[in-house]
Each structure stands twice: as C-alpha cells, then as structure tokens.
C-alpha cells in the first residue's frame, strides 16, 4: 500500500487515545454532546469540545445543533474507510515482515552450511 493512500489527517485524529475513547462512547451510545462525553471521560467539557472539533474536521463525526449544544454521531462511512486503511497498512507490514523472515532464514542457512 502506498503511503499516499493513507489519510494522515484521519490517522492524526484517531491517534489520540482520548479521541478513540470518545469514538467508542459515541458508537456505543449512538450519539452524544460535549457535556455528556465529559461526564464519562476525565477531561473538561472544553477539552472534549476541542477533541470533537478535530474528529469533525477529519470527518469521523458530524454534529447537529440541538439548543445550545451540538449532538455528535460517528460517520460510519469514514470510520469504515479508517478500518480499511488500517487493514491495508497491516497487510503491507505483514508482507514486509515475511520478506525479512525469508532473508534472515536464508542468511542463517548459509551460516549453518559453512
């Protein structure tokens, strides 16, 4: 897989453990606000709002205004895209590691044969 096909902004958003926890909670609950999420995550409501803004810019969540707050939901399509990218990156690394293993085995066979 070429690194050009990996969305760096998407992975930067997912790379933060607090944002991953927020995604987990939104997926489990179906939706949430900065206030409801801040009750379940050990950071301030303002910090949660900033994390939600990062997730929103990456397209992982979308907020709809409800009164004075926004209710956020996970974008299933963008999340599926992230999962597909992760699987592709994992496959590419598996292939690299198999090549390294074959090279190491070849070197070891030559050393054993001397």
From TrEMBL:
CDD domains according to UniProt: HTH_ARSR
Tell me which Gene3D superfamilies the record gives.
Answer: Winged helix-like DNA-binding domain superfamily/Winged helix DNA-binding domain (1.10.10.10)
A Pfam family (short name) is HTH_20
Domain named HTH arsR-type: residues: 1-94
NCBIfam families with a match to the protein in the record: HTH_metalloreg (NF033788)
In its UniProt entry, what is this protein called? Winged helix-turn-helix transcriptional regulator
